[in-house]
User: Fold Peptide/nickel transport system ATP-binding protein from Aliicoccus persicus.
Amino acid sequence: MAENLLEVNNLTTSFKIGGTYFAAVDDVSLTIKPNEVLALVGESGSGKSATAFSIMGLHTKARIEGEVNFLGKDLTKFGPNQFNKIRGGEIAMIFQDPMTALNPLMRIKAQIVETLTIHGKKSKNENEKYAVELLERVGIARAEQVAEAYPHELSGGMRQRVVIAIAIANRPKLLIADEPTTALDVTIQAQILDLIRELQEDLGSGVLLITHDLGVVAEMADRVAVMYAGEIVELAPVREIFKNPKHPYTRSLLTSIPSEEQMGGKLHVIQGVVPALHKLDRTICRFSPRIPWIDASEHEENPELREVEEGHWVRCTCYKNFYLKETNAEDLAELENQELERDAVGGNEDEQ
Ligand SMILES: Nc1ncnc2c1ncn2[C@@H]1O[C@H](COP(=O)(O)OP(=O)(O)OP(=O)(O)O)[C@@H](O)[C@H]1O
Assistant:
C-alpha cells in the first residue's frame, strides 16, 4: 500500500466571534494517498472550505491546532515563505471562480510562465513554449492565440481550463479542488471534471475534492468524507457511501438528490440549516436537532467517529435505528423552537 501523501491529524480551526474562538473545523483527521481522490462533502457552512484553507495555510486570522503532514512535513509549522514555495508547486489549488484565481491585467501566457518561473529553473523561452503546451494539454484549441489573451476575453469554461493548466504546471503531488465546477454551465462541468480526473491520473496526484454535489462525488471520488457542522460524520469508499450509507446526514443528503428511480417521485428535503458556529451545541450528536423524530436515547453524548466496517467510519450510534421520514408539521415546529432557543442564547455576528 502506498504511503499517505497527506495526513491531517486532529485539525481544529477556530474563528473569533465576539471575543471567543469557535471551531469551524473540529478535530478532523483524514488521509490522502498518491493517485487517490478524496471528496469532502456537506452542505454550505459545514466546514469544507475552512478545512482546505487550513491545509493550504490560507487562514491568517484563525487559530489552527493539530497537524497537517504533507510528505512528512507538518504544514501547520510553515511560515508564509515556506508556504509560497510549495503552493503552486507541490500543492496546487483550483477554486470555484476562475476569475478570482487569474490576474485580470496579465495575459494568460505570462501568468503560466510566472508560476513556472517561481517553482522552476528553465529559461524564459522554454517556459513560454511549455505554457502553450500546457494550454493544449488542457484541451484549449488555438493555444498560441489564447496564450496572448486576457482572462476576460475567454469563456468561463476556458478560464477554468487555464486555471487547471496553471495548477498542473509544476506537476503537483496534491491538488485541492474547491467546488471546481460550481460556477460553470452544466454542459461544461462534465468536461472539466473529466479533465481533472485525466490529468490527476497522468500525474498520479492525490486530490482533495470539495463539493456539495453528490453527482460530482460519484463521478470523481475514490473515498468520501461527509462533513457536518465542523466534524466528519462518515468516511468510506465511494461505493459504500452510495450503496451502504449509514449516518443519518449522509442518508438525508443522498435522498435529497434526484436519482433515476426517484425521477418523477418526491424528493426528501432536509429541513433546517447547519447552525452558526456560536450557536452549535458541541456536546451532542450535531445532526440530532434536524432529525427530531429520532429518540434522544439513540444518540451518544460527545459521539466519536468509529470504524464500523472495514474502512467505513461513522459518528454516533444513531445510525443503527435511523429511518428517513417526510418531515411533518410537528417536526417543523420542533425545528423552529430550537432555532428560537438558539437565537435567544446567540452571540455576535461572525468576525472575518
Ligand atoms: N473567516 C471566517 N471568520 C469567521 N467564521 C468563518 C470564517 N470562515 C468560515 N467561517 C464559518 O465557518 C463555518 C464553515 O464555513 P466553510 O466556508 O468552511 O463552510 P463550507 O462547508 O465550505 O461552505 P460553502 O460550501 O458555503 O463554502 C461557517 O459557519 C462559516 O460562517
Observations:
- The chain has twelve helices and twelve strands.
- The pocket of adenosine-5'-triphosphate is lined by residues 15, 24, 42, 44-50, 212, 276-277, 350, 352 (CB under 6 Å).
